[in-house]
Structure formats: structure tokens, C-alpha cells
Design brief:
Number of helices: 12
Strand order of the largest sheet: 11-17-16-13-14
Number of strands: 43
Structural class: alpha+beta
CATH topology of the largest domain: Serine Threonine Protein Phosphatase 5, Tetratricopeptide repeat
CATH superfamily of the largest domain: Tetratricopeptide repeat domain
Helix content: 10-25%
CATH architecture of the largest domain: Alpha Horseshoe
CATH class of the largest domain: Mainly Alpha
Shape: extended
Number of domains: 6
Length: about 800
């Protein structure tokens, strides 16, 4: 037998690694009995899968019938090959045979992992660069989870960390080292951990200066996602020795504002800055940055612009650090407009190839010139681009301007684009079954424009119809034109005024939607409208369904209109068809008789004036073989609140609705714990915990609900599910189901507050409104609660007043 030695043995440097490996004596060492909670174990799903595959492969390829003495010989041979003979590949083969004999021995798995890591690299076996570290991490992972002593687990985690480093699994390797050091703080392991943490841990990896905006900022990139919530990152940052103006965490970037163009800054990122994972910045970083002046650039305020047809016609253009702007004006004619809109050219930014397409095929270039503008360093200067001077006479069509700053880098690829029309005409269209309604009004006076020419153009560029507006600025196209399909579907309305004004409206896009404003409306009903209803929504087979309908035309009751009622089963098959005669002022009534074998599901009744057309009204009803509830159940909590970790019981009383108790019936259910919006009992108006803290609902089934006794009574023991440590108020919803002998169940639930077992601080505003006027007083009341929820005195409290700035991107 190999004696168990103390872990004080030294470390041996492996031939295939630049970091330290444990010696055979330390691998065989034992320590204190492992007493950690299972929840604190190191776990990694990917490595666990690799371990499972490697163990299965070993069992398949290393079958052995060795006795205990043969196993000892294999172990001794493996140790000799690993240390004295320096043949780790042969040693790994011996240890692989050993673990197939006794797969639960953690020391054998660790010996295998160590031997695998000592195998030197072989250029002739390129696949081993991947397979050996994978197998070594699997063996070390199995050694860790099958060990029963702290020191053995610490040794396994150290070897596992080395294997994970070989696999470039930096974060899991760091975690393995951390768990190992918690079990046994060995100097060599700590040195390896600190070195890996400095090279691959949570650290600053890059930074960028965003100088092209009016308010430049510095974004520092970290190797991990930053901690969320209400973390105050400003205390970890200083700019020229002062606090930063604003700091925003965006994923793994920390963006700092308050810089000025053309200046140099010293930015300190202090150690301790937290990541979302359980890690902090190990060392401070100093960044010396220079914020460059903004590059020369131009942009327009919007994508589409309507120039007035009368008065000075200028389009605003914004320039930055530019003294001269080069611009060109293009025009898309009336007959090319539909195609350009369909391709998405109109309204979008022009790129260099779009400009060539516009100039050579779909449109024409009308003007090319330059405009001198005022320059103020890094300031945005708005100048009116004089379109009327460049093009004194405008022809009907859509225009585009492409502009760039003279002298800017890659100016041809950074074209500012502005689409515009010169018009006083504003178009509105309404599409209904009776036709397409067009309204033309003056943009200047909002008065109707009479005698304006209006064209309806199809997708294939064919003119479907033409018309002119009346004195009210109104024109109408026949409803059939709006029902075209394919190339004949309506695409655009084009209007030309009597004074040469030109405007267009893309009718192929979705109509202006007001549903998000609480206004939906209904589709236009057409010449005949109908309303149909049943006396209830759910029926059983063999019952009667009474259907009533009211049919109306534009003049009122549609008494003479023939109406057909079609009844459809849930599978869409027609079940019946009935012709209905008027029974007075457009009303019609019909009884539908369901058979005893009627299909369950949603049935539909359609009302037609023409069976080949769409129905004018539809109503649905549900057919279900349902039975009303026969049980009643009451829930009586023994205590009015729940405490995590404490036993709790719920009293249940059940009875049949016809009298007798619900005896010997099975019970089941669950407990759902979530954040509560209610105040803490006894402290109305006080807010506890972080307001933006996310608390996901936690659900746990009632594992021992049991059955009711002869009197229909039961007491269910409840165990609170584990919830995150929080100061916010919580509530538990207890759901209980009582099962009938037939298998059906009834469900009842109650909500109970959850006692928080940590000290808490509550804040209550002493003002009613969330917004205070200038020079007013913002007073708050503070209360401290102990673990039992009782008010206690607290000392050493600190408070911060944080100003939140919201910047909206429209």
C-alpha cells in the first residue's frame, strides 16, 4: 500500500508546461474531510460532457480483468514511467487501465490527468494539441467530483485549471483555481492563479475615443461584461484627477463623457471595478488620450424634404469643420419614379454605386457645384443650400442632393443625401371597398386644391386611371382598381397642380396605423353590413345554438337581400347551409342543432349575401364535452406569512357540492415566489431594495401534498423555494389542485407575503409627486428593519444622491 502523505510536498515542473504541476506525493496526499455545500462545487457543462465521453471511451477501449494486486502493479508501473523513466504517454496508458477497473477512485483519475498533461508535443500528431488537453480536463474533472477530501479536491482543481489553460478556457481555468484556493491555499497554486488572472482575467483590453460627436467620449473595453444594476462606476474613474461628468456601462464597455476636442486627458481606471461575474479589476490602469478634432463632414437634417413652391427654396445642411461643400442635384422623372420607389432608392442614403445608377439609368444629373460655408472649429454650422439658384426652373419629379465636405477622406463613400420635392400639394388617401379616395390640400394654406390632376399608377408603371379634384380637393377612383394583383396592384398616386406643383404618395406601403394610440376602428363593411351573435359562447354536444343576425344596407334594414348562413366544423368542413328570409327590419334567426357526436372545438357561422364572396359577418362558438365543477375547496393558511427555510403548513377543506366531504382525494400544487408590488406590512409608502433589481419568479412543486382524510381535510407541509438574497418585498402564490376520482381537478390559490430574513433599509418620500419644482425641499423618511422585520436603530448608514440623465435616440 502507498502511504498517505502530507500536502507539504513540493511541486515538480512538467516537461510540457510553463507552469507548475503537482508531484505524485502531493496527488496522493490527503487533507481534512470535505464539508463544502454541493451548491458551491465547481461545475462546467462543456467539461462535464467531455469527461463523460472520455470515460465511456476508456471503458470501451481499455477493458481489464486485473485483480487488486494487478491494479497495484499497474499503478506502480505508471508512477515509475511518469517520474523515473519520464515516459508520460506509457504512464497514461497504465493509469487508463487502472481507472477502468475502479472508476470511483479520484486519485487514479488525477494521476491519469497529470500524465496526459506531461505528454510532450508531437508535430507528427497534430490532433493531440486538442485531444490531450480535452481528455486531461475530463479526467481531472472526474477526479474532483469523485474526491471526498478537501485536499484531494484542491489538487484535482489545480490540474484541471492547467488543462483548461491548455484549451484556452481562460475564465473556467480562473474559476477552477479560485475554488482550489478556497479549499487549500498553496503558494504555487496562488502564484499560477495570480499570473493567469493578470494575463487573462478581468482586465482592460482596449479603448477607443469617439471624437466625431458633438460631445466626445472615451469607451474603455473590458474582457468581461460589467456588473449591472445600480453600480456606481463613477467612483472607479477619474479624469485629470477629477470625477467624470457621466459614466455609462454598455455590456463590456464603460463609456465616459465630458471630454473636449483638441485636448489631452489623463484617465485613471481604478482597481476594484466590478464585473458581472464574481471578479473585480485587479490593478489600476492609466490611459493618456488625445481627443482629436472632428473630421470634416456634412449631413442633412432628414431623409425627405418638401420645398415650398413659392418663396425662397433652400434646404438646410449641417457642416462640421468644413469650409466648402461639394454637391450634386439629380432628378427622377415621372415615369421612372415607381421603379425607383419599389427598389428602395428613393428616401434612402445614396452610395457611390447608387449615384452612378441614378446618373446613368434611372435619372439624370442636373447640377454640380460647390458652396462656401462658415467654419467654427468642431461646431455644427447650419447653412441653407440654395436649390432655387442652382435650378431656377423645376420640372415635375423627385429630386436628390448628394453632398460631401471638400477635402474629407473617402468623400465619395460618405455622401450625405437629401431627397425632396418642390410642391405646395399635400396628399391623403383612404382605401375602402367603395374605392380609393384622394384629398389634395395646399401645404401653405391647408385649403382644398381644385382642378389638380391625379393619376393612379400600378407596380408595372402602367397608369390605371386619371382624374381631377373637385372644389373640395377630392377625387375618387373605382374600388375595382384597388383590388389589382401582381403588376396591376396600385403603387403610387401622383398629383400635379394647376401651377405646376408636383407631389406623390406611395400607396403600396402600410397605411398609417393608429392602433398603438388606442384607436383601431374596423374595416369598411361595403354596401352590406351585418351583425351576428349567439346567446352564449360554449355548448355541449346535443344542445341547440340560437344564432341571430341583423343585416343593414346604406338605407337601413336590408329586408330584400338574400342571405345564406354556412355552418363550419372545427376542421373547416361545411356542416350545414341555410337560406334565411327576413323576419322583420332585416333581422334573421336560425337554430343550429348539434348532434350527440358533434366535433369538439371552435365552430364558425358565416353569413353571406354571395356565397362566392367573403362573408359579411362571422361568429364563432365552442363545443366542449364539459362537466361543471362538483367540488368546493377552501385554503386556510396556518400562518399569515412565509419565512424562507422555516416549515409552514396550509390547511385544506374540500367537499362535494351536493353535500358529502371530499374524502380521500389526491392533492397537488406548487409554490411560486416573485417580487411583490405591495408595501411591506406596517410600513406603507416605504420602498425597500433596489427598484431596478430583477427578480425572476421561482417555482417549486409541492412534493408531499398527500390526500384528504375522511372529513375532506388535509394539512400540506410547504417548503419555500430558494430565492435570491434581496431586500425587496416578496410574495408567494400557493396553488393547490384537488383531483376528482374521474381525474378532473379544481384549482384554488392564495397569495401570502414572504418574510425577508436580512436587515433592510426603507426609504419613503415625504412628497406626493415624483417631480419637484426648483428650490423646493426633497425630504425622505428612513426606517431600519432587522431580520425579523422589526424596527431597529442603525448606525453608520451612508446615502448617495444620484442624478440620472436619460438621452433618447429617435
Amino acid at each position: 500500500m502507498v502511504p498517505e502523505l502530507s500536502i507539504t510536498a513540493g511541486w515538480e515542473l512538467g516537461p510540457c508546461s510553463d507552469s507548475y504541476q503537482p508531484s505524485i506525493s502531493s496527488i496522493l496526499a490527503s487533507g481534512a474531510t470535505f464539508a463544502a455545500d454541493k451548491a458551491s462545487l465547481f461545475k462546467h457543462e462543456g467539461v462535464a460532457r467531455d469527461a463523460g465521453r472520455y470515460e465511456a471511451w476508456l471503458k470501451k477501449n481499455y477493458t481489464s480483468t486485473q485483480t487488486s494486486s494487478g491494479t497495484r502493479r499497474l499503478l506502480a508501473e505508471g508512477r515509475r514511467l511518469l517520474n523515473a523513466d519520464a515516459q508520460p504517454r506509457a504512464a497514461a496508458s497504465s493509469f487508463a487501465r487502472v481507472v477502468t477497473i475502479d472508476a470511483q477512485n479520484d486519485r487514479d483519475w488525477l494521476l491519469l490527468a497529470t500524465a496526459l498533461l506531461r505528454i510532450p508535443k508531437d508535430k507528427q500528431k497534430g490532433s493531440e494539441r486538442y485531444s490531450i488537453p480535452v481528455n486531461a480536463s475530463g479526467a481531472a474533472y472526474l477526479a474532483y467530483h469523485r474526491a471526498s477530501q478537501d485536499q484531494a479536491r484542491a489538487n484535482a482543481l489545480t490540474v484541471l485549471a492547467e488543462a483548461l489553460v491548455r484549451r484556452s478556457y481562460w475564465r473556467p481555468a480562473l474559476d477552477a483555481y479560485k475554488y482550489s484556493l478556497k479549499l487549500s491555499d498553496v503558494d504555487q497554486a496562488r502564484k499560477a492563479y495570480e499570473q493567469l488572472r493578470a494575463e487573462r482575467g478581468f482586465r482592460v483590453v482596449n479603448y477607443r475615443v469617439e471624437n466625431e460627436t458633438a460631445s466626445p467620449r472615451l469607451c474603455v473595453e473590458f474582457s468581461e461584461t460589467l456588473k449591472g444594476g445600480k453600480t456606481d462606476f463613477a467612483k472607479f474613474i477619474s479624469v485629470n484627477g477629477k470625477d467624470p461628468e457621466n459614466v455609462n456601462a454598455e455590456g463590456n464597455n464603460l463609456c465616459i463623457g465630458g471630454f473636449k476636442h483638441g485636448r489631452r486627458f489623463q484617465v485613471d481606471v481604478r482597481s476594484g471595478l466590478p464585473a458581472r461575474i464574481d471578479d473585480q479589476l485587479a490593478k489600476s490602469s492609466q490611459l493618456t488620450i488625445y481627443v482629436r478634432d472632428r473630421s470634416p463632414a456634412v449631413r442633412f437634417a432628414g431623409r425627405v424634404y418638401v420645398l415650398p413652391s413659392r418663396g425662397q427654396a433652400g434646404i438646410p445642411i449641417v457642416s462640421i469643420n468644413a469650409e466648402e461643400i461639394a454637391f450634386k442635384i439629380y432628378r427622377i422623372g415621372d415615369r421612372s419614379l415607381v421603379g425607383a420607389v419599389a427598389r428602395g432608392t428613393v428616401g434612402n442614403k445614396l452610395r457611390s454605386w447608387d449615384v452612378r445608377e441614378l446618373r446613368d439609368r434611372t435619372g439624370q444629373q442636373l447640377y454640380s457645384g460647390k458652396l462656401s460655408v462658415r467654419k467654427e472649429l468642431n461646431k455644427e454650422i447650419t447653412t441653407a443650400l440654395p436649390v432655387d439658384k442652382a435650378l431656377p426652373k423645376m420640372r415635375p419629379g423627385v429630386y436628390a442632393i448628394s453632398a460631401s465636405a471638400v477635402g474629407a477622406k473617402n468623400a465619395s463613400d460618405q455622401l450625405a443625401t437629401q431627397w425632396f420635392v418642390v410642391s405646395d400639394l399635400g396628399l391623403t388617401s383612404l382605401n375602402g371597398r367603395d374605392g380609393i379616395h384622394v384629398f389634395v390640400r395646399s401645404l401653405d394654406t391647408a385649403s382644398p386644391v381644385a382642378n389638380a390632376s391625379v393619376k393612379l399608377v400600378a407596380r408595372n408603371n402602367e397608369v390605371l386611371a386619371t382624374g381631377a379634384t373637385n372644389a373640395q380637393g377630392y377625387a375618387k377612383f373605382d374600388g375595382a382598381l384597388g383590388n389589382g394583383e401582381g403588376g396591376l396592384a396600385p403603387a403610387m398616386l401622383i398629383a400635379e397642380g394647376p401651377n405646376g406643383d408636383y407631389s406623390y404618395l406611395d400607396v403600396s406601403q402600410a397605411a398609417f396605423d393608429l392602433t398603438d394610440r388606442g384607436v383601431k376602428g374596423r374595416a369598411s363593411p361595403g354596401p352590406i353590413d351585418a351583425y351576428m351573435y349567439t346567446e352564449r359562447g360554449v355548448y355541449r354536444p346535443s344542445e341547440e345554438v340560437n344564432v341571430t343576425s341583423l343585416v343593414r344596407d346604406r338605407d337601413g334594414a336590408a329586408a330584400g337581400v338574400p342571405v345564406t348562413m354556412v355552418v363550419l366544423r372545427p376542421d373547416g368542413v361545411e356542416d350545414a347551409r341555410h337560406s334565411l328570409k327576413d323576419q322583420g327590419i332585416g333581422g334573421r334567426f336560425r337554430t343550429i342543432y348539434l348532434s350527440s357526436g358533434a366535433m369538439t372545438g371552435t365552430w364558425r357561422v358565416n353569413l353571406h349575401t354571395d356565397v362566392k364572396a367573403d362573408p359579411v359577418a362571422t361568429v364563432g362558438f365552442l363545443v366542449e364535452d364539459f362537466v361543471p365543477e362538483r367540488l368546493a375547496m377552501e385554503l386556510k393558511p396556518i400562518d399569515k406569512s412565509l419565512t424562507p427555510g422555516s416549515p409552514w403548513k396550509l390547511g385544506i377543506k374540500g367537499r362535494f357540492l351536493y353535500g358529502p366531504p371530499a374524502a380521500d382525494l389526491a392533492l397537488e400544487g406548487e409554490v411560486i415566489v416573485r417580487a411583490s408590488q405591495k408595501d411591506v406590512i406596517g410600513y406603507p409608502g416605504f420602498k425597500f431594495g433596489h427598484s431596478d433589481e430583477r427578480i425572476d419568479p421561482v417555482r417549486e412543486a409541492l412534493s408531499s401534498a398527500g390526500r384528504t382524510n375522511a372529513e375532506g381535510l388535509a394539512e400540506i407541509p410547504l417548503q419555500m423555494p430558494k430565492v435570491k438574497r434581496t431586500a425587496r418585498p416578496l410574495e408567494a402564490r400557493v396553488v393547490v389542485r384537488m383531483l376528482e376520482p374521474s381525474g378532473r381537478s379544481i384549482e384554488r390559490s392564495i397569495k401570502l407575503p414572504v418574510r425577508t430574513t436580512i436587515p433592510r433599509i426603507g426609504i419613503k418620500p415625504q412628497f406626493d409627486r415624483k417631480t419637484l419644482s426648483d428650490n423646493s425641499e426633497a425630504a425622505f423618511e428612513i426606517v431600519g428593519l432587522d431580520q425579523k422585520g422589526k424596527q431597529v436603530a442603525m448606525t453608520g448608514l451612508q446615502w448617495d444622491l444620484v442624478r440620472l440623465e436619460r438621452k433618447w435616440q429617435w
